[in-house]
């Protein structure tokens, strides 16, 4: 998966777990929590969805990397570069 | 009304919020009951396949965000809808009320089966890898979930819990609310019962294995209490939550009053896991009458529990004959014939649909009785058509459940 595809995938997950939010103006440089109503259970949802969809395992110590879209994509890139994106 | 109770100990109903398979408000529900409109539909659920159920169609998003619906449970959404509607109906000054003095007491038949079945179904797709078991499972399945979701949604900081009381739960929630008001533990009680049970295949499969799941080619005719051709229960979802207040508080704020909880009782059969015990059911009704300081002849309307099983219907009629004799002839009806068995919500919903009788003196019908079982031929049974009475002052509402749990409430006109 390319960084752009990873971003699309994370965006798709966010649209599921934050269905009331408008994600069209998401700023990739700003922390999710500063733009969206997300709590710790929502971040666990991101981790869970990546595990379910792509078997990507994210250790608890690495959750800090899921702060913004940019940090998330940067963190996931080496973990998902050899994975094909599922058709959505 | 018990003569020795002062106004601070008298408990009245000042708001009603409900969702039933044939109505999402009391006026809609009452209209359906008076016009014979069923809420039973064809229904498909995993593993069991096509069956029948009473399904609610209230707007979950009226009071919740999509995210709250996703995170919570169906029972939570039903509870929130009913509680919000009840508070709106009550006319309470909700913005300024001290929400630490609001208690939430919700009866449930069961809770957690739906969510657990869903998770097991989900991990089956991952070869039962428990690492994909949802972190939402525990908050969804804790037994207080339906009541707790109300407090989260409405900012209530007073006590909340559910009462597990099988199908006697709707009355049990109401009784608990009244007791807490009398003890001074709260000033407003949101009390009643809810059920999400149609979303667990296990309840359908369990009743089917027991030979107690209704079948019929025409869904609206499937729930047939007291009829010779009854063949079991139609499972339904739904909820009904009352705003209960002490009479002096309600009077002081000029609240509309639907009725007064003048008597109640709960007891146990101590005889069988599933078979009812008419002696103990009768005893429960007598205990409620005693608490209300009423005679059986004072009761004008009996809302029965009968679920359309042979033994259950006949046993309840036996109990009713034991209590109502020597000139007592209340009108008698059954709401499950319209909506099926709403489990934890049943007692509260069935009472609500009858409360307008204080104003219009009409006992709604029991539908689907084409061939009355002679053993269920109670003299006052409203068969297929509503019955009009000169006046309706007291309603007795039965609600019974598995493991031999019985609950009765008596509501008086104020």
Helix and strand arrangement:
The complex is a heterodimer of chains A (88) and B (414).
Chain A: H1 3-17, H2 32-35, H3 40-54, H4 69-80
Helix pairs in contact in A: 1-3, 1-4
Chain B: E1 11-19, H1 26-35, E2 40-45, E3 49-54, H2 66-71, H3 74-90, E4 102-108, H4 113-124, H5 137-141, H6 145-154, E5 160-164, H7 169-183, E6 188-195, H8 201-209, E7 235-236, E8 238-246, H9 247-252, E9 259-268, H10 278-292, E10 301-303, H11 310-323, E11 331-333, H12 336-339, H13 346-354, H14 357-360, E12 362-363, E13 387-388, E14 394-401, E15 405-412
Parallel strand pairs in B: 3-7, 4-5, 4-6, 10-11, 10-14
Antiparallel strand pairs in B: 1-8, 1-9, 2-3, 6-8, 9-15, 12-13, 14-15
DSSP helical segment count of chain A: 4
Low-pLDDT residue intervals, each spanning 5 or more residues of chain B:
none
The CATH class name of chain A reads Mainly Alpha
Q: What's the structural domain tally of chain A?
A: 1
Average pLDDT confidence of chain B is 97
CATH architecture call of chain A: Orthogonal Bundle
């Amino acid at each position: 998966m390319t960084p752009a595809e990873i971003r699309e995938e994370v965006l798709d997950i966010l649209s599921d777990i934050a269905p009331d939010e408008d994600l069209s103006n998401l700023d990739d440089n700003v922390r999710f929590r500063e733009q969206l109503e997300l709590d710790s259970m929502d971040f666990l949802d991101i981790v869970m969805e990546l595990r379910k969809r792509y078997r990507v395992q994210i250790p608890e110590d690495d959750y800090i990397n899921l702060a913004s879209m940019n940090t998330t994509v940067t963190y996931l890139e080496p973990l998902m570069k050899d994975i094909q994106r599922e058709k959505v | 009304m018990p003569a020795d109770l002062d106004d601070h100990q008298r408990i009245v109903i000042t708001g009603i919020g409900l969702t039933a398979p044939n109505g999402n408000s009391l006026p809609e529900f009452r209209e359906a009951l008076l016009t014979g409109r069923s809420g039973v539909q064809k229904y498909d659920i995993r593993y069991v396949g096509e069956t029948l159920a009473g399904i609610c169609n209230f707007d979950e998003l009226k009071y919740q965000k999509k995210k709250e619906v996703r995170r919570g449970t169906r029972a939570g959404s039903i509870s929130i809808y009913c509680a919000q509607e009840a508070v709106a109906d009550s006319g309470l000054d909700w913005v300024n009320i001290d929400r630490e003095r609001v208690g939430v007491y919700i009866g449930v038949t069961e809770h957690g089966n739906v969510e657990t079945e869903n998770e097991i179904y989900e991990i089956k797709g991952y070869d039962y890898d428990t690492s994909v078991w949802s972190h939402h499972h525990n908050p969804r399945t804790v037994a207080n979930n339906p009541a707790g979701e109300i407090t989260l949604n409405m900012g209530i900081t007073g006590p909340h819990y559910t009462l597990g009381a099988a199908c006697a739960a709707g009355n049990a929630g109401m009784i608990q609310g009244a007791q807490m008001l009398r003890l001074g533990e709260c000033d407003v009680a949101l009390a009643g019962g809810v059920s999400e049970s149609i979303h667990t295949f296990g309840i359908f499969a369990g009743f089917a294995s027991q030979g107690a799941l209704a079948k019929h080619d025409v869904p609206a005719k499937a729930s047939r209490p007291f009829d010779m051709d009854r063949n079991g229960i139609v499972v339904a979802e739904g909820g009904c939550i009352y705003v209960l207040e002490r009479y002096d508080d309600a009077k002081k704020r000029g609240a509309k009053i639907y009725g007064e909880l003048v008597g109640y009782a709960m007891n146990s059969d101590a005889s069988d896991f599933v078979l009812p015990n008419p002696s103990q059911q009768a005893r429960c009704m007598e205990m409620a009458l005693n608490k209300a300081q009423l005679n059986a002849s004072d009761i004008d309307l009996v809302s029965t529990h009968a679920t359309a099983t042979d033994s259950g219907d006949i046993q309840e009629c036996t109990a009713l004959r034991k209590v109502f004799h020597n000139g007592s002839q209340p009108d008698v009806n059954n709401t499950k014939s319209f909506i099926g068995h709403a489990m934890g919500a049943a007692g509260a919903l069935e009472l609500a649909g009858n409360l307008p009788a204080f104003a219009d003196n009409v006992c709604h019908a029991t539908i689907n009785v084409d061939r009355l079982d002679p053993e269920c031929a109670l003299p006052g049974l409203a068969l297929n058509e509503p019955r009009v009475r000169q006046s309706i002052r007291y309603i007795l509402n039965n609600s019974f459940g598995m493991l031999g749990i019985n609950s009765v409430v008596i509501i008086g006109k104020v």
